[in-house]
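Retry 2 of 3 after timeout on previous attempt. Resubmitting structure tokens to design endpoint.
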């Protein structure tokens, strides 16, 4: 898929609606995510490598909140384990439709199943790898603990959860600094002050970030033996939780 340039918030909007993964976002999503999330390409590449390391024979690798299938494709390209399949799930019909087109050319490697559904409704089972790549932050806070517990129960012993999230910080100076640096990153990618401000308003109360300590505590409460950050670029991080 050739992505159009993200200019969804380039003009003043009289009323800024809540951010949704609709057809307009799908058309610009690859450009949007690369210019908005520091280190995104590095995270995607590493997901493929981690999946190859942890994938077990006759097991399932889940990409929950797969969007256009970048992490799914990275896993597909790296996994050589026999009889291992990938299940990619997203609740946006527009995302899933484009994801199917993007992955239709994926030859060889693990079998891929693409599902349009709420990831909270997916029965996780026989899993060696589960990926939540900037997905949990869009799930209501009240649902996160139970959801992660479901993932833990569905993971095989020795399984891995890869969790990427935008982070918040308890220290007010750190919080302000990390937000400022993220905005500077976006400006360096060509976004204007207006675009940054309007996008932030659209995401308010839709994307709810938490501290790493909150994530770590919740993951351990779900049963994971350990949970640590393996990558961080300003207020965006990716964590590994091991069963």
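Retry 2 succeeded. Sequence:
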């Amino acid at each position: 898929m050739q992505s159009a340039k993200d200019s969804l918030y380039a003009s003043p909007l009289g009323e800024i609606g809540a951010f949704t993964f609709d057809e307009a976002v799908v058309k610009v999503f690859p450009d949007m995510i690369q210019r908005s999330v520091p280190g995104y390409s590095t995270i995607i590449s590493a997901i493929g490598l981690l999946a190859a390391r942890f994938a077990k024979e006759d097991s399932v690798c889940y990409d929950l909140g797969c969007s256009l299938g970048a992490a799914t494709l990275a896993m597909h390209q790296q996994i050589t384990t026999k009889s291992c399949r990938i299940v990619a799930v997203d609740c946006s019909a527009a995302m899933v439709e484009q994801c199917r087109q993007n992955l239709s050319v994926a030859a060889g490697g693990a079998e891929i199943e693409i599902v349009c559904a709420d990831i909270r409704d997916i029965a996780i089972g026989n899993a060696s790898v589960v990926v939540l790549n900037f997905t949990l932050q869009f799930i209501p806070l009240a649902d996160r603990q139970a959801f992660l517990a479901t993932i833990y129960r569905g993971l095989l012993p020795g399984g891995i959860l890869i969790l990427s999230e935008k982070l918040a910080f308890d220290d007010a100076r750190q919080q302000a600094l990390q937000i400022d640096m993220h905005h500077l990153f976006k400006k360096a990618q060509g976004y204007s002050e207006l675009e940054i401000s309007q996008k932030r308003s659209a995401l308010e109360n839709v994307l709810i970030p938490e501290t790493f300590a909150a994530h770590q505590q919740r993951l351990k409460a779900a049963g994971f033996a350990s949970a640590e950050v393996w990558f961080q670029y300003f207020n965006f991080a990716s964590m590994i939780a091991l069963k």
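Attempt log closed. The radius of gyration is 18 Å.
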